[in-house]
User: Fold this.
Amino acid sequence: MKKLLSLVLISSLILPTLAWSASTNKKTCPECEMKTNAFTEDKIVRVCNDVSDIICKDVKLDERRACNESDETIFSKATTKEDIFKFAQGCFKSGVTSFVQFFTDFLPQLLRGIWDATKMAAGAVTGDSDVWSKLKGMYESSTSIAADIYEAVQEDPGAYFSKIWSKVVDVVGPMVAGYDCLKPQKKVENICGFIAGWIVPPAVLAKVLVRGVKEVKFLRDHGALSISEKGKLAKALEHAENRPVLTLKQMQELEKSFEKLGYTDDQFEFIYKSGGLQKFKLAELKPITSAEGKAQKLALLGEQKAAVKQTAKNPGQVALKADVSSDFFTTTSTGVNGVVNSSGQIVERIIENGSEVAYRVRMVDPNTKKIIETTFSAEQMARLNAKAANKETTAAITAAIAKDPKLKSPQQEFIELQKKEDARLAAKKAEQDKANGFEVKEVDMLEFERAKAAQVKNYEGGIDYVAEKPPGKIILTKEPPKKPEPPKDPTKPASLYESGYVQVLTKNKMGVTTVMPAQIMKTVVENNVEKYVVRILDKSSNTYIEKKFSALEMTMMRAKDAPAVGNEIKMFDRAAGVTGLD
Amino acid sequence: MVGYMKYAYGVLALVCLSMNAYSIEFEKMEIKGYEKKIISETQIRYVKRTNPKKVIHLQVSQYNPENLWKEETIKDEISKMFETRKSMYKVFGFSDIEFYDYKLANTKTHPRLDIFGSYRKINDKKVYFSETNIYFEKKFLQVKIINEAQTDSGKIPKVEIDNVLVQIKAQELEVN
Assistant:
């Protein structure tokens, strides 16, 4: 009797839908009638006034979808995967041009599409009489809520879409969240492609739940969906490989079983998504309060902890090269020679969320007296009290050296060792270069920057290696490419190292700031105002530009923008005749 | 999550279903002071010209005539429907659903059920609604006034929905 009742009810639900679909075809979509006729033999009903008509209005008719409600195949039997892909592509094109329409018109239509899935779900619960008793008031409620949904979507389609779908489908959640809300078109493109994968097959929602990942992979494999390798979606796909295919009912039963064992919903979700269900048979699992259960929990959720650890290391970390002229520290350690002071220098600061979390340092090994490289955590460095010690020690060293130039501080020792080490490595490299037939040329900072820019612009230009710190050396191949010589300036100072170097920051129309290395060439007096003639290297064109700056402008450049780079600032101060800047 | 999905199935079925009812002559229905937009063959939306936050939705949907409301059980049935609707609202991102009044009227012509309530949208804004369901032979007409307002002054009085029904001549309609 129940089955009969269910059949009657299901029929009463399905038949009006079919009738509506058929009647709509005739009324609103004459071209579709033609399409319907073309499929008559396959009994295909073309669904018009549907999602494809809205979001794929620019797509050729024969690339749109048709629907056969009776055997739950929306495309005809002859439809290939390529046809489906074309459909998805079409969605991209028209979705981009009608963002709001996509959400306002498309979303309700999508709900209609989910009807198919519901039919399937209804079939699965026909034994549940409670479902049918709830139907009283459901018609009114669903109608009523449809109006509320319409208003919510109308007001803020993107927000509503995100909110709902992140709840409904776990695959969509990371996807929606992963796209930049400032780029709605991108969002539409991808989600449209995604959705195309859902509505093309019939059992929409169920399919997304159970096989949604398969649809995503299909679109990805066809190039319809670009997925960042490191993104959440890619991880979800990876995990999905290990995930067993479960029906909703099976999933619910499993969830309840895990709950009884003491796992939370979130933990169960993680275990399911990470492929943990295959690690143990359900019958083998013990309550998490038992010793065996604890071990099982650790095995099942271990990856969750690891994932958290991994996340903490990766995002937002930036390695900043330390200022070469500072950041010394001194540490005391006990080695084979007893308690010794050792000195080092911070080479890189690892920044995460604006805070320094670690430091890469070079220091003197107190035992071997050789330079070693290691990493200190922020806590370790805090213990060393590096920054405070640095200032105090530097001041103390300066004072001590002033009194007795022969005195060697730990810092001096470090610097000397470092110089020796650098020299040794440079000599070794030079030897190798020479053996390989390269020549070494010493250049000043501007020439160095020019060469570096040339290297970036044209790697084939012959420059194989650029030294790390200007002024420095560049190594050219035996036959360096012939390039126009930079203009010669007769006022160029005799010594490269006595001139003032500055860095000029420029902004283009897009607001992009570019740092250009520059050199003060001379001063001139114009209208009783002293101005500085500065030669700037334009990296983009690899040419020199000369500009005049007043003393005030120079001061502002120095104070506001120009990064302090070692002794260049001192030189600049002297050249400009400005005091009290530091 | 999975619990939501179960509800989603039922809800979406009925949302979709509600859109599939037969049409009535929507073109002729005007409400004074409101701008009309025909959304589909079964749904019209009216927006108040002086306050776009106030809208009226007219929808036609189907129901099971053998399972109509009864005076003696309505209290319990409304309570059940409230719980169901609460779950449905949750699925669709709404919260704080409240029914603060209802009224069943078995008139000579067509039975009518009014519901007054409120909910919060995803942006936390409060919405008051007044809904009337008028039952015809096989279909029912739902008139819903939705008003976004921050205080209880946004509640919609019964007289307002009565006024709408008079204007659209609801009792004279032949929805089937």
In short: The first strand of chain A starts at residue 317 and ends at 321. Chain A touches chain B through 53 residues (CB under 8 Å).
